[in-house]
Amino acid sequence: MARGKGFVTTMNLCLPGLGQLLDGRWITGAVILLLSLLFFLAGTYWALAPLIRTIRTLLSDPSGGTIDLHWEPLKIAVCYGMVIILWIFSILEGILHREQKEKENE
What we know:
106 residues, 4 helices, rod-shaped
């Protein structure tokens, strides 16, 4: 089934790497998708870990102590920034690959 660059771009807007997977480029799509997922999960971990630690502390000792939320905003920003970079790369790579393929077919 012939798919244009609009299809690949739309699928990559939904999920990074999805357009490449549906275009039959399994390795490229899988690498982009897996890296995006890993960075997203790592960013979510760094964002939620201090909150979960605090809740566990309060549940184990409700009478008190100090609550120390030690956030690491740089790690969170790097992880989510990498997701955005991979997303943009996925879209651009899909468009450029489609254009190259169309030139070869001419």
